[in-house]
Amino acid sequence: MTKACLLLAAVAVLWALPAEGQPAEGQPADREAFGRSLLGEGDYFRAITVFKELAFQAQTPEDRFRFRTLIGQGYRLSRRYDLAIQSLGLATVDAATDEQRDRVDLQLALVYLGMKLTPQAGLALSRPMGAAATPLRGLLRAVVAVDQGKTQEAKTELGLVRQGAPGSRVAEVAVDLDGAVRSLEAAPHRSPFLAAALSTVVPGAGQLYADHPVDGLQALLLLAALGTTSYVAWRWEYDDGRPYVWTGISWSITALFYGSNIVGAHRTAEMYNLRAREVTWGQARDRVLDLRF
What we know:
Elements lengths: L1 H15 L11 H14 L2 H14 L3 H17 L3 H14 L3 H17 L3 H7 L9 H14 L3 H14 L4 H18 L5 H10 L3 H5 L3 H28 L4 H45 L4
Helix pairs in contact: 2-3, 3-4, 4-5, 4-6, 5-6, 6-7, 6-8, 7-8, 8-9, 8-10, 9-10, 10-14, 11-14, 13-14
């Protein structure tokens, strides 16, 4: 009898315990902490599910705002930017203080930066914000400035961030960004206009200048072959007194490829600069996009 009672008691205790990896029911604080831990682990969609349940059960606009903001953050970190914008739009309805509105604006700015919509990110940061949000706002404004090619403005913003929040996580990221900005300024650059000019004079020279020697050689050989073909067509029709039909067709094709060679050199230089920028700036920028708050 005693063994049976102990067995029943053990079953009752086990039944009352939450499933492995799940918080106990009826404890919103524990469930919120569980959801945040999932965010930290990168399990974004499980975290979003937890926060959606909490938002549905929220008793006050303040709680509902917090959970909807966390849902938006989960979608942002998982790169589901369209859903992040929807969730943050719902959070705006419950935003009653400047601090809460600041939080939404900062999250939206990060969403737009992730989407590479720099003007929209700048617009989200243009509204005056509360003092508590200033360091993070400055960090995001620096990213916007770099994306717009204003590196000096970015360095000024990052200096203010380091002074305004010394020792904070934001200040640490600001130091990394400042180093990335300075490396970006020192990174090799190719002028698209010079590349186009070089290919105008010597086909393929612009591609060679933009560190694409194979493309440059192909352009040179192709245009040399087309030019030779055009000359042969002209000579044949000239010697035989024929109308210059094949000459016109051949030179038209040659002119088309000649123009394409110039445009291609311009774009090759642009791609060279873009790759150099991504290598130097991309990783530092991604660290900002992964910020959680």
